[in-house]
Amino acid sequence: MEVAPYQPYIDPDYDSLIERIYPARVCIDNETCRDCTLVKVDSANKHGILLEMVQVLTDLDLVISKSYISSDGGWFMDVFHVTDQLGAKLTDESLILYIQQALCATRRGGLPKEQQASSQRKHFGPRHVSSEHTVLEMTGTDRPGLLSEMSAALADLACHIASAVAWTHHARAACIFYVEDGVRGGPITDPQRLAQIKERLENVVEAHHDEGEKRSVRLTAPVAGRMHTERRLHQLMFADRDYEQCRCCRRSGSRGDGYECRNGCEEAHVSIESWKDKGYSVVNMRSRDRPKLLFDTVCALTDMQYVVFHASVSSEGSLANQEYFIRHQDGCTLDSETEKRKLTQCLLAAVERRGSHGLRLEVSTQNRPGLLSDMTRVFRENGLSITRAEVGIHGERAIGSFYVTEASGNDVNLSTVELVRKEIGGSVVIVNKSSGASTPQGPMSALSAGLISRSGEEKPRLSLGSLIWSQLERFSSNFGPIRL
After folding, report:
1. Rounded-to-integer distance, Cα 265 and Cα 16, Å
2. Distance (Å, rounded) from C-alpha 224 to C-alpha 55?
3. Burial profile 394-420: b = 16 or more Cβ within 10 angstroms, e = fewer
4. Which region, left, alpha or beta, applies to residue 86 given φ > 0 means left and ψ of -120 to 50 means alpha?
5. Nearest to 290 by CA among 228, 226, 360, 238
6. CA–CA dist 57, 43 (Å, integer)
7. Which of 228, 208, 438 is nearest to 318 (CA)?
8. If DSSP codes are grouped into helix, strand and coil, which group holds residue 153?
9. CA dihedral 265, 266, 270, 275 (to 10 degrees)
10. d(CA 57, CA 146)
11. Helix 293-303 crosses helix 229-239 at what angle (to 10 degrees)?
12. 427-434: strand order across its sheet
């Protein structure tokens, strides 16, 4: 007779026991540092909590200039050095209160309903999550006019686009549209109509695909707790395997990690080493600093099921350095070259996806049905190709950010921009011009994320360990009560 293995009973309330005994603490400290606010978090650990906390801060457009992270032994401690976009400390009491509530809520799985409806939630709440619209996700081969054709098809089907985000990377494209019924309003839930919309959009996407090329179109009804839009874009492009063409700096030495040429080089470099004594794999990254770099990196690590036990991040001029001490969620380190190569490629892809070539145009105009279709048609008819886009509605206005190039890949002629402005109406503002893989930085746009700088030599990777421990020990003694 076969004997079933013993499986002890575990009370379903056990997972929340530690939280009830030791609730999360968040302290907003404006006294310790002269030029930034310290956001200190002390909490029971869970997989993905670091990403959730970084997401809260980046959705508020806060600049993270430095961070120290430790989550060993089932406990999570983190210190973020943050400022607003003008480089000032955080002094708005309602903003401070929202940060405390939101960071505590990441441990509990979300804000309570009464706080979700509060004025702070409405004013500061995330702009990249929607649970009130039907969601359309698309991945496929990038080509000029793709976004225009998709938005035109949705307009023909009486679908109103509430917001949309599109990324392109290595000839691949990923888009997420939040749509609602253009006639009755509200989400589209009728299965027959959803099937009709999907079939029409699949025809649009497949029109210029060669046989066997990867592509997908997916529509989902509204659900509570929907994933963050930009994290979902990372997941879509990862599933589309856009990372396979990623390589470190071409001027790298024989090791291929790019550290031989790092002085003055702004291309992305990644190296992965084993720290066998402590059972960690150590990931070092160096790249050009840009907005949301920390968020994008932690997205990649989290979605690949890696756990960050310790990390130190900061910026050095226009460059960002990041160091992570990681293991796989099953406790294993990265031992094979295949694993290391894949993680290296995925981290490079995470850095590159948000980097955009071309001219950045900020568009603001009166909202109306079919607006995105009209705007993207104007771009296409004037020979412009969209490499990245984000569009949303604010009151009666539609606000959009587009990165565009000539269809030939050349720089955009300013006279073309003027023609576009006249046809679209409203305001079209040239924000910056990016010819590299990253958005040019300025004092108001850089989201710093990286390592404390290390001087010169080729092999100072693990020397940061002592710095991490000393900083965490100093900060962990300074946690104070939540000011609610």
Report:
1. 47
2. 18
3. eeeebbbbbbbbbeeeeebeeebbeeb
4. alpha
5. 360
6. 17
7. 438
8. helix
9. 70
10. 33
11. 50
12. 216-220, 134-141, 172-181, 159-169, 384-394, 397-406, 358-366, 427-434
**Residue where the block lists tokens 């938005």:** 151
What's this model's pTM, rounded to 2 decimal places? 0.81
Distance, CA of 370 to CA of 386 (rounded, Å): 18
Q: Is there a contact between 324 and 67 (Cβ–Cβ < 8 Å)?
A: no
Rounded to whole angstroms, the Cα distance separating 295 from 274 reads 24
Query: Concatenated DSSP letters for 375-437?
Result: HHHHHHHTTEEEEEEEEEEETTEEEEEEEEEETTSPPPPHHHHHHHHHHH-SEEEEEEEE-SS
Note whether 248 and 270 are within 8 A (CB).
Answer: yes
Contact indicator for 194, 188 with CB cutoff of 8 Å: yes
Return the exposure string of 240-268: e unless at least 16 CB atoms fall within 10 Å of the residue's CB, then b. bebbeebebbeebeeebbbbbebeebbbb
Q: Which residues are CB-contacts of 288 (< 8 A; sequence separation ≥ 6)?
A: 266, 267, 268, 318, 319, 320, 355, 436, 437, 438, 441
362 vs 417: CA distance, rounded Å: 11
Contact between 196 and 134 (Cβ < 8 Å): no
CB 233 within 8 A of CB 243: no
113: Cα separation from own chain's centroid? 26
- Three-state secondary structure of 243-261: HHHCCCCCCCCCCCCCHHH
In this structure, are residues 139 and 172 in contact, taking their beta carbons and an 8 Å threshold? yes
Residue 109, amino acid? G
Q: What is the dihedral of CA 170, 215, 404, 360, to 10 degrees?
A: -80
Phi then psi for residue 312, to 5 deg, are -140, 130
Cα 460 to Cα 272, 454, 466, distances in angstroms? 13, 7, 12
pLDDT tens for the chain, 484 residues long, are 455 555 566 566 655 555 556 667 899 999 999 999 999 998 888 888 899 999 999 999 999 989 999 987 778 899 999 999 899 999 999 999 999 988 887 655 544 544 444 434 444 444 566 668 899 999 999 988 899 999 999 999 999 999 999 999 999 999 999 999 988 888 898 899 999 999 999 999 988 777 778 889 999 887 766 788 999 999 999 999 999 999 877 555 444 444 455 556 778 899 999 998 889 999 999 999 888 999 999 999 999 999 999 999 988 888 999 999 999 999 899 989 999 999 999 999 999 998 767 899 999 999 888 899 999 999 999 999 999 999 998 888 999 999 999 887 778 888 898 899 888 888 888 886 554 433 333 322 332 333 223 333 333 333 344 444 444 444 344 433 333 3
